[in-house]
Design goal:
Layout: H1 7-16, H2 18-39, E1 44-52, H3 67-75, H4 83-88, H5 93-103, H6 112-118, E2 119-123, E3 129-136, H7 139-194, H8 200-244, E4 248-254, H9 259-269, E5 279-285, H10 287-368, E6 375-379, H11 392-419
Antiparallel strand pairs: 1-3, 1-6, 2-3, 4-5
Helix pairs in contact: 2-11, 5-7, 7-10, 8-10
């Protein structure tokens, strides 16, 4: 059965081994002090601070309606770089090589890897500052490396940005020249089309004239149809009335109504009174029949004239409709071709103007070297007077704590070992 150790027993064990704990602690402090003060070479840290300004944007208003416009907007402005990108570029091998050459450092001792391990960079939180730190055994060397690295780093980034802007400007210029050729070709095609006979406007005028004429003829045709119907109705009515009228009328009248007949009859009879009651029958042409017959003939002539006019007018309408269809077909074809050429010209002009604007912006940005002001040294490094390593007081304090812990462990272990030894049995 295991025995429980009380707090009192633990304290008693520590008190019994206090000298052991003290000895181990002092030894640890002495060893740490010797290494910190006499053996370990001090390390010095020099710091320089850079300020990164926001990248200059394009002055033009980019139309963000397509990936094409977005690309042009990107090409006409300085590339965007985050603080993290700037920080990582501090230990770029190209920059480190320039630092080694500038300070004439021994490449066997200060290789790219060794120099990179000496340099660290951090982005200061909530600022646009980058702090570059250089650690070295020689404080003056640390300051020299930091102050040499910073301007080389600034020049490298400025040159890189400037080079990229130059390439972007060259690309935009090349595309601008190509778009200028396209614009010239589109302009020439539209010019040649407009120079052709029977332009769209002329054809449209001809179509409008034909439509107006066709409308007039159709109106006249409608009026003739009304006249025809009216004339045909009058003719049918006159024919019906004519059919009811006799052509010859038989007339019975007194002989005395005709003096000539009365005289003849009187001579033959001898006494005029004897012929008073005599009557004569005769045939006469019906005047109404004659009038109606003339009316029917007149109406038939009028109807024939109206029908003839209708036939001629219908033929003209058909002819105009055929001509109109041909004009409308030609107009539609020309209008389609004109719209295509006009659209092609508009697109070419818009594209060329866009490239021209972006090229001018890129040229201005590149020639002004705005990128040189995007990063600058705001705080050069000074020669450090106090080393950052080793941290002597901290090392001694840590050694004291570790010595106490080690001493306590030794005391408890010795007590455990002592109590776990088997007791000897005396034999008589």
């Amino acid at each position: 059965m295991e025995e429980e150790i009380t707090l009192r027993e633990l304290i008693e064990i520590i008190l019994r081994g206090k000298w052991t704990i003290a000895a181990i602690t002092i030894a640890a402090i002495l060893v740490s002090g010797i290494f910190s003060f006499f053996i370990i070479s001090p390390t010095y840290e020099a710091r320089t601070t850079l300020m990164v300004s926001p990248m200059v944007q394009s002055s033009g208003q980019a139309r963000q309606n397509s990936a094409y416009d977005t690309l042009l907007s990107y090409l006409s402005q300085y590339p965007q770089m985050s603080l993290e990108t700037f920080r990582v570029q501090v230990t770029n091998p190209h920059i480190l090589n320039q630092v080694i050459d500038a300070l004439n450092l021994d490449r066997n001792q200060y290789s790219l890897n060794a120099l990179s391990n000496m340099i660290s960079a951090e982005a200061v939180k909530d600022t646009n500052l980058i702090r570059i730190s250089v650690k070295a055994k020689d404080p003056e060397l640390a300051a020299k490396i930091a102050n040499t690295l910073a301007p080389i780093y600034v020049d490298y980034l400025s040159a890189t940005l400037q080079e990229q802007m130059g390439k972007s400007a060259a690309y935009v210029e090349h595309q601008m020249q190509e778009e200028q050729k396209n614009l010239e070709a589109a302009t020439e095609a539209l010019k040649n089309f407009l120079a052709q006979p029977q332009s769209v406007n002329e054809l449209q005028k001809d179509v409008d004239a034909k439509l107006e004429q066709l409308t007039q003829f159709k109106t006249m045709l409608n009026e003739l149809e009304v006249q025809e119907n009216a004339t045909r109705a009058s003719l049918e009515s006159a024919k019906a009335m004519l059919a009811k009228e006799p052509k010859i009328l038989e007339v019975e009248r007194s002989i005395m109504s005709d003096p000539v007949m009365a005289g003849i009859a009187g001579e033959k009879v001898g006494n005029i009174s004897d012929v008073l009651d005599l009557t004569v029958k005769s045939q006469e042409i019906n005047q109404n029949y004659t009038l109606l017959s003339d009316r029917v003939a007149q109406l038939e002539v009028e109807l024939a004239g109206i029908i003839s006019q209708k036939e001629a007018l219908t033929a003209n309408i058909q002819k105009i409709q055929k001509e109109l269809e041909g004009l409308q077909t030609t107009l539609a074809q020309k209008q389609t071709e004109y719209n295509r050429l006009q659209q092609q010209y508009t697109i070419a002009l818009d594209t060329y103007n866009t490239f021209l604007q972006k090229y001018q912006e890129a040229r201005i940005t590149t020639s002004s070297k705005i990128g040189d002001a995007n990063i600058m040294v705001v705080s050069p490094a000074i020669v450090p007077e106090v080393p950052v390593a080793p941290r002597k007081a901290l090392n001694v304090a840590i050694s004291a704590v570790l010595g106490l812990m080690a001493g306590a462990f030794v005391v408890f272990f010795m007590d455990y070992w002592k109590n776990s030894e088997p007791k000897s049995v005396e034999v008589r």
